[in-house]
Amino acid sequence: MKRFTIFITTLLLTFLQMAAQDTNIKGTITLSHQGNETDFAYNEMTKVMDAAVDGDTVFLSTGYFQGDFIMTKKLAFIGSGADSDQGWNNCTCYDGKIVVNVPEGTKLVTRLFDGIYFINNTNITFKSTIDNVIFRKCYWNNNILNINANIYYMLVDRCHCCLDTRGDYFKKLVVRNSYIYGTPNSTNISANLFFYNCNISSNGGYGITGMD
Fold this sequence. Notes:
The protein is mainly beta. The protein is built from 2 helices and 21 strands. The chain has helices at 2-21, 45-51, and strands spanning 29-33, 36-40, 57-60, 63-66, 69-71, 76-78, 92-95, 97-100, 106-107, 113-114, 117-118, 123-126, 130-131, 133-136, 145-147, 154-157, 160-161, 173-176, 179-181, 193-196, 199-201. The strands form 5 sheets. Strands 2-1-3-6-10-14-16-18-20 form a 9-stranded mixed sheet, covered by helices on one side. The longest helix has 20 residues, at 2-21. It is globular, with a radius of gyration of 19 Å. It starts with a helix and ends in an 11-residue tail after the last strand.
């Protein structure tokens, strides 16, 4: 019994130590431009935004990333996975306020965010009209989306996320193979929401039909 107690105590301390070290595992940002790659530190996303041009890809390694930034160009952000079961040091974890403020009517040509775990302090604001917004294999468990302009088309694919956000600006939202915690708040957009093979929790919000 004593050995078992020692084992449990040791295991608990190990897990606590892993949790404490999560944000200490700093990732690396790699900006890819026409085959050329430039590395930046985990907290240098504003420098990445200054150096990037339309069509570039921003790769994020496993580890912790931090920093607010404004996206004004057509970019893709590709992480190394959002599965935090083994700790944040084994996935891409982002913490910061992100503003998408591309020219009005911009249509993205590739997924916007892929394989990223957005922690609770993250906030993503869409300030200009945009088309073809894709979240793929991402995770967020609270309302991180602020939508202040029309999104003509958004795809949420294989994500675990909260969509309990303002829904009036969604012209078309398609969600597939995802776990959804909360649906967009609006009484007039049911015809514009499409869910395929999803597990949906209402989260006490208005829900798909506008009913609480």
